[in-house]
Amino acid sequence: MSVQDPLLPEHSKVKVVTRDTPLDAGDHVLATRDPFVVRGWAKLLAAEPATGEASASGAATSLKVNDGGSGLRFNFPGIARFRAISWDEWFDHFDRHSLTFVFEHSTATSPPSARYRIVPTQ
Fold first, then answer.
1. Coil, strand, or helix at residue 46?
2. Count of CB atoms situated within 10 Å of the CB of 97
3. Is the pLDDT of residue 121 over 80?
4. Domain count of the fold of the chain
5. Which of 101, 66, 65, 63 is nearest to 81 (CA)?
6. HSE-up of 62 (CA within 13 Å, CB side)?
7. Residue 101's domain spans which residues?
8. How far is residue 56's CA from residue 78's CA, in Å, rounded to a whole number?
9. What was the pLDDT predicted at 2?
10. CA distances from residue 100 to 17, 35, 63, 92 in whole angstroms, order as listed
């Protein structure tokens, strides 16, 4: 299944994947709800689960979060910090709000990309 993603308009198709989905050379932007895929992407980039909003584990950050309500983020080495949260809290919020993780897929000709979106599942 493929979907359109208006947040990444330069790519006409976004392939929905799980950990078992075979990838083709032309798969540049992927979407998933599979925690294994999300955590694999994060590990590749040394990204850690985070949030910019208040939750049971702590207060909101002073950084402006404007993403349509997800509040979920990643902290990357050397980049502005959001409040770190556990993977359990990150995925609890992700599942509770029925979100989808959209990201650029690295290939042999393109390095890992930190570009991602967290969007409502349609």
1. coil
2. 14
3. yes
4. 1
5. 63
6. 1
7. 2-120
8. 26
9. 42
10. 11, 10, 23, 13
Instruction: Write down the H helix ranges in the chain.
Output: 35-44, 87-96
> Under a CB-based contact definition with an 8 Å cutoff, are residues 53 and 44 in contact?
no
Integer distance in angstroms from the first to the last C-alpha of the chain?
A: 12
pLDDT at 7 > cutoff 70: no
More confident residue, 62 or 24: 24
Calpha distance 88→42 (Å, rounded): 14
Task: Please give the Cα distance from 49 to 76 (Å, whole number).
Answer: 9
95: which residues sit within 8 A by CB, 6+ positions away?
none
Task: Give the tens place of pLDDT for each residue, 82-114.
Answer: 889 999 999 999 999 899 999 988 877 778 888
State residue 45's pLDDT score.
Answer: 93
The token pair at 86 is 């556990």
